[in-house]
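Supplementary Methods S3. Input chains for the assembly prediction are listed below.
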Amino acid sequence: MDLLILVIQCFVITLAVTGGFAYLTLFERRLLARFQNRVGPNRAGPNGVLQPIADAVKLFFKEDIIPSRADKWVYLVAPAMAVIPALIIWAVIPFGCLNVNWDYAACFSASGAGLHNILQIADIDVGALYLLAVTSIGVYGITLAGWASNSKYSMLGSIRSSAQLISYELALGCAVLSVVMTYGTLNTRLIVLQQGGLWGVVPQLLGFVLFLVASTAEVVRAPFDLVEAEQEIAGGYNTEYGSMKFALFFMAEYIKLIAVSAIAVTFFFGGWRFPGLETLGRGVTELAGPVAGALVVGLVSLGAFLLKVVFFLFLSVWVRASWPRMRYDRLMTFGWKWLLPLGLLNIVYTAVVFVLVPGQATASLVLCGMGIITLALTAGLSRSARPAGIVTAAKASGD
Amino acid sequence: MDLILFIITSVIALFGAGAMLITRNAVHSALFLLLNFGAIAVLFLLLQSPFLFTIQLTVYAGAIMVLFLFVVMLLGAERVEDMPDRLAWSRPLAMALGLALLAVAGVVALRTPPVAVPDSAQAAGFGEPAELGALLFTRYLLPFEITGVILLVAVIGVVVLNQRGMKR
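Predicted structure tokens for the full assembly:
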């Protein structure tokens, strides 16, 4: 019975994130169009709601090609290796708390006694580490695709991606580590549970900023998308892929984007919690019995979680519409000389403040203040010279 | 159930290791080694140790193998094996040492009394990150510090070599 529930859970979540991916593409295209003062795809169905289906059908009927000089097996395996991490990363993320033992209160107890939450697949003790582990094997799909295609543009794209992902993984790990230090656990359910008062973004403001930047780089989104810079390397690692194999890469990228948004919500924005959820659960239980109480808490928490995720997706589209792509050397400098030291500094802050300052709330506020000061200082230090100054230098050198 | 999973996983692990030795293409070798690491990670999971499972994935599959692949791809060295060996004695020596290691491992495995795998009820608290960390900082502090120093030496070595390259 438990095994059957597990299989159904996995099935539902896979379908849900795949469907989420399809509509995220529409969401992004419509929003980008609005940002650029265009209309965007609005022909297929009302407001373009059938556009993702049309795209999928188009991709299915395209010719499936394997380049003659490609390394056939690796070429075929690469799309799968890109998609699998993007799907299995969802196993430890709690989407909400729908306790099928019909007791809403179990959702809010740290011991988790009597809790059978069907909105989280695996409640494991090393959840945060699992997320990092799966993110770290996500690089193989891109790397192998570029190598196996046997084309120089693909190869350049995949070399760029390996270097980028290895560099930004460290900053990402540091940000996650400081969250783990704040809550003293690696379990995602307990991390969410402890954000009942202050959300994680308050003690870990610096950590959140680092996570946001590093995770954007990990999912190779703009402004860190030089892995697939069309102008320079003709699309990068997926140049030689067509039809559904290309669609799989596309899918992996967007599902990873949804996944890192969900992780950001889980670690920094209270996961499925919001103020008053417990009161709501108690009220409905007294009015309409425990089954209704658990159901309402489950659905409302799921809704709150999805709303927060959509906010992060919007942010990502907004960033893509606003920022130009970074240059490769600046990307590396930014990752190694700014993000990684800041991540290490944040770990030191977290450790020192939680030992020296008594009380979780006070310590959180102190950490928040230190985060703001550090960010302001960093922004001041990293300011580059004005373009006017550079022009003068060029004139002085005589060219 | 556990036994079936164990047999399947170990067959995959052995297949990965064997195929890694036999393939001529360095990238294929790296991929088979990756398969082997993945199977070993699952074996840790079967031994009720999810912490080691994630560490195995992060460190070996996620970091070390990616660096391997990166270097092989960057140097275009995937076909170096086709060239004749410059060190003629290295292959027989490696074989002899490998066999010796296998023999030692076999002897140790045969002489150790069998240990029962803890089931999930017994294993509560076993191999948890908190317990592991506490052990590292109390009972195994000296080995832990020595490992840290060795890694530091490697880092310094990298910096020194890199600086020498920049002067030329």
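Chain A has two domains: 1-61, 65-382. The mean pLDDT of chain A is 83.
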